[in-house]
Structures are given as C-alpha cells and as structure tokens.
C-alpha cells in the first residue's frame, strides 16, 4: 500500500485525499448529522405540543363537574322513565302488558281490535323493544283519538307503522245483498305499536318471544 502511495504523483495524492474527505463528509452527514437533525425536530415538535396537550387536559379537568352533573341528570332521566316501561320479567309477559294497554285504549275510543300478533323483541341497549301488530276497525275520529291516546299514554309507547284502508261506501252506492250496513267513513288500519321493558336475557333464552296471530275484539 505504501509503495502504491509513493508511486502516485503529488497531484494524484491530493485528489485521493480530497475523495476520501468527501466520502467522510457524506458518511458523517447521513450517519450523524441527519439523525441529529431529525431528533432535534422531533424534540421541538414535542415541546410545542406539550403546552397544547396540557391546556387540553386542563380544560377536561375544568369540565369534570359539568360532565358529572350531566351524567347524574341522564341517570335521573332514565330513572324517571322507568314507570313508563312495560311490566314483566320476560318478553312474553311484557308483550301481554302491551296488548292489555292498547286493548284498553282501543275499547275506550270505541274501535274494534280484529287481530293481534306479537313480534320478535329487539335489543335496545339495556332494554328490550317489545312490539305488536294489530288490525283495528273504526271511524276516522275514533282512530285519530286512538293514535293520540297511544302517543300520550302513561306507558312509553311508539307507533312504528300505520297502514290505513278505507271501507267508505259513497251515499247512493248499491249495497250488495246480505252485506251488513257499514257506518260512513269506516276505516281498517294495520298498526304496529312498540313499548320498552328492562332486558331479561337470562329469562328470555328458554322461551319463544314470537306468538302466533290471536284474534281479539273489543267494543
């Protein structure tokens, strides 16, 4: 190696040293300087974000009382709604309570419950949504009063679906022989009403929540 170096001219030695120096500069830049600069930028970003994170945490701590108050208010609201839930430890018992409630309202308003069918319960968080489908006949005002009564019931009831079919026969239209005379503006509606009950998963495992169609009639 020394003999090779001695054979080089002064100019060649200078170029070789310059080349080695340039290589050392590039290696030092990528091995030392670049990681150092990246680390410095990361530390700078962290120092800039820490005050913002601290201010954010302080805002959360300042809202702690308000959040606790809102949580207590929500719990109180849920507690206040419990008397409006359907009674019963199983979906079938809750569905029976729902049927009795709707049947009583239908009877009070003078409508006739023709058929009733219990639908499958649906999970709604810690509650179960119990629904029944009913076919009801009555006058326009009677049906309107029934729907209003369902919406203002002491129970928490929801009308999911209403299908209306008119049985109105215009004045002077010939009545088929043997057909009973229908009151004017008679309606037939298919009504899906739902209520809510406390979920009883363990009690509901062994029973079939859906019931077959059961005709019922009321005054």
Structural class assignment: alpha+beta
Q: What is the CATH top level name of the largest domain?
A: Alpha Beta
Q: Over all CA atoms, what is the radius of gyration?
A: 40 Å
Mean pLDDT: 77
**Whole-Å distance between the termini?**
118 Å
Write down the secondary-structure element order. Answer: HHHHEEEHEEHE
CATH superfamily of the largest domain: Ribosomal protein S6/Translation elongation factor EF1B
Basic shape: elongated
Explained architecture:
The chain is of the alpha+beta class and 219 residues long. It folds into 2 domains: 61 residues; 123 residues, 2-Layer Sandwich (Alpha-Beta Plaits). 51% of the residues lie in helices and 22% in strands. It is built from 6 helices and 6 strands; from the N terminus they run ααααβββαββαβ. Strands 1, 2, 3, 4, 5 and 6 form a 6-stranded antiparallel beta sheet that branches. A hairpin with a 2-residue loop joins strand 2 and strand 3. 16% of the residues are buried. The C terminus is likely disordered.
Layout of helices and strands, plus pairs?
Elements: H1 2-7, H2 10-62, H3 64-81, H4 91-108, E1 112-118, E2 122-124, E3 127-139, H5 140-151, E4 157-166, E5 186-198, H6 201-204, E6 214-215
Antiparallel strand pairs: 1-3, 1-6, 2-3, 3-5, 4-5
Helix pairs in contact: 4-5
Q: What's the quick description here?
A:
The chain has 219 residues and is an alpha+beta fold. It has helices at 2-7, 10-62, 64-81, 91-108, 140-151, 201-204, and strands at 112-118, 122-124, 127-139, 157-166, 186-198, 214-215.
